Amino acid sequence: MIDLEFAINTLSLGSLYALLALGLVLVYGILKLVNFAYGEYIMVGGYAMYLSATTLGAPWYVTILLAVVAAVVTSYLTEMVAFRPVRTKSPAAMIITSFAVSIFLQNIVLVLVSSRARAVPLPSFFSRTVTFADATVPLRNLLVIGVTAVILVSLSLVMKKTVLGMAMRAAADKFTTTRLMGVPANLVISAAFIISGLLAGIASIFWVSRSASVDPLTGAAPLLIAFIAVVMGGMHSTTGAVVGGFVYGLIFNLLSILLPASMISYRDAFMFVIVVLFLLFRPAGIIKGGYTEERVG
Prior knowledge:
The chain is mainly alpha-helical. It has helices at residues 4-31, 38-54, 60-83, 91-112, 139-161, 163-173, 175-180, 185-211, 220-233, 238-258, 267-281; strands at 118-119, 129-132, 135-138, 213-214.
């Protein structure tokens, strides 16, 4: 049944998916790289919450802050150590590197922590519900909507009003020309990875709160969702990525109420069918952004 509760839950799910998709498309826009290690930034954020809460006994606001910092630092370090040395090589080398980084980060967790899922202590208000206008929704659903709105507005201002933001937009459109105009390539690419890590860190808080646990494969599902949302919204547009995230959330929730109970577990299969249809009939996505094929060096 479509009512206020459905609308809020759909908006909440779409907000989370929009964060995931935006973090993936920021790096793709400049490097033309689908960063398959992106999901591991979310996994690192989840483990930062787990370790800071259980080992350090840190209060909830510190665990949340450390989750974001850990994801940002991990994203920046992978750009510095793994992607920068190979970004002048073939596109295949970049893709393989992203897979290698993903597996490397998963194995670090396997060796240093465990292969088993770990319970992540969360602040009590994450499990509270709020009732208004005959709708009862988890408080964390309202939080993710509010946080996403603030982030989208802030990021939009940064991209439109700051020199760094304008340089990133120009680099995403024509990277070589932007470099010839004196914009440092390393600065622009590092900024894209840092912002991507920031979005992954914030998304990790709400993603992990859904199950209150984290394991080495935690990043696989959000990476897949981000990729599908980006394909649906548009690979070459940040606006398209956000729209794709909300469309994904809407279709996913509609399938939840329209499909028979025996077929609910096949929702992901239906989402893949929709993606295939997009690739066949709308390969540029819902919003077609500017696109030029050029190698980044």
